[in-house]
Amino acid sequence: MISSGFLLRPCKNFIKQSYKHNWIKPDGFETGIQVYNCITEGKTPLILKNKQLITWYTCGPTVYDTSHIGHACCYVKLDVIQRILKSYFKYNIVMVMNITDIDDKIIYKANQTNTLYKDVATRYEKEFLKDLQDLGVTEPNIILRVTENIELIIDFIKKLEDGGQAYKAKDNSVYFDVKHYNNYGKLQNIGDQMIQQEQNDFKKSSADFALWKGSKKGEPFWHSPWGTGRPGWHIECSALASHILGSNIDIHAGGLDLRFPHHENEEAQSCAYHKTNQWVNYWLHTGHLHLKSAEKMSKSLKNTISIQEMLKIATPDVFRLSCLMSHYRSNVEYSKELLETAENLLKVYKNLLNSCDDYKKGYLKATINTEILTQALNDAYDNIHRSLCDDFDTPAVIKCLNDLVSVTNSMLHATVSSNSDGGLYTVMGVANFVSNTLSMFGINFESKTHTSQDFTEIMDILNTFRQNVRLIGVANKDQEVLKLCDNVRIRLRHLGIDIKDHAKASSWSR
């Protein structure tokens, strides 16, 4: 959605700019991956400047309040893409993120709560980083705070002013002069645009945006060549990202709501600063998270659910799987039903892995058609590879996994007609493939079910004792003994430990 501040009414004092916004295909190394390109409005090949290294910048939060599940959805989806690139395609990603720790909203919150703006920013930054950790989102390699890099931002603005792309206004603010940049609007694909030329109180054109905000009474400020003030929002990301990643970045990511005006303004001022036609080669934007019957989740609409509130009713894996079930560019409708669907699907995968383990240990007898299962495994591999290369199509990957699980379960749980030869390696191949694919997305059953050696030994002893008692109960048809065994199984299940009774043995798993 284009910001209402950019939908200008035609007037007699305007110039009409007609530019064809072109994406420049980078020189470099082909990856075999296609990604959606908002400039071309279609998929284009992902080409890297360096053979194995990806430079990546993600817009971080403005830390004035508790993060909500809309933020969680964005960062989880971007984390999934990064994991795919690192784990599956074996690329080395250097990821940079900013923290906006000075802003109108932070100042307002500080005044509301009668606290220092620094205390507000510090509190919510800590909350945000803990939320990322709890969600299993990989922390960026480099985190840059705005207030720790003011001089760097000032130097960036000064160069734009010296080059004629910025000007100081009567309010002691500095604005980017859009009419002196001839490719504005390419991310939003505006096309023919009307840029107002009539004067207003401060700006030459209402499309111009602030690089430096002149200070107001009672607000925090820093000294600059233009007087006291603080940076504008858009310039912060340009200056910080350029400082670390330079004049050309492989991937810049964020939510769809940032495409215009934030990313548009970043690209404009950065291209002007670096004297280049393309600062970022690929912009990745995640879809919004909606509540049922709500247009969008946002703090301004006061319809948010905090990340920690959500984690009280769903595990991080369940939420991550609910994000995987929709494409990263698609909107997500958050609901209890969505989480239940993801939770049930997660149980399907866990049960499949447990059944494969039971088959390996001999607890589960089954007839395995090795030829059919091997073909299903090969098809899953090929289809998932194509899906990952096709703009990181995770819903298609989930469908492929479900098809493979269904074929495998149909053999593991069918009536046994005969023992099969060579079935074990194929079943374990399926287990490895399912486990590795989910692990690539950040859902790792092994690390989360890992227990100490002492605990494992204790459970083995308990399971063997219960199994022997149960067999005595079965032999003697002693219902009281069998009831006691059932009670042990039920109580352990409440602790997350599942015991399965087979003909002459019992198995346990987390």
Automatic annotation (TrEMBL):
Lipoprotein among keywords: no
Lyase among keywords: no
EC number(s) from the headed UniProt entry: 6.1.1.16
Reaction catalysis annotation: 2 L-cysteine = S-sulfanyl-L-cysteine + L-alanine; S-sulfanyl-L-cysteine + L-cysteine = S-disulfanyl-L-cysteine + L-alanine; tRNA(Cys) + L-cysteine + ATP = L-cysteinyl-tRNA(Cys) + AMP + diphosphate; S-disulfanyl-L-cysteine + tRNA(Cys) + ATP = (S)-disulfanyl-L-cysteinyl-tRNA(Cys) + AMP + diphosphate
Organism superkingdom: Eukaryota
Pfam families attached to this UniProt entry: tRNA-synt_1e (PF01406)
Function: In addition to its role as an aminoacyl-tRNA synthetase, has also cysteine persulfide synthase activity. Produces reactive persulfide species such as cysteine persulfide (CysSSH) from substrate cysteine and mediate direct incorporation of CysSSH into proteins during translations, resulting in protein persulfides and polysulfides. CysSSHs behave as potent antioxidants and cellular protectants.
Entry protein name: cysteine--tRNA ligase
Organism from which the protein derives: Molorchus minor
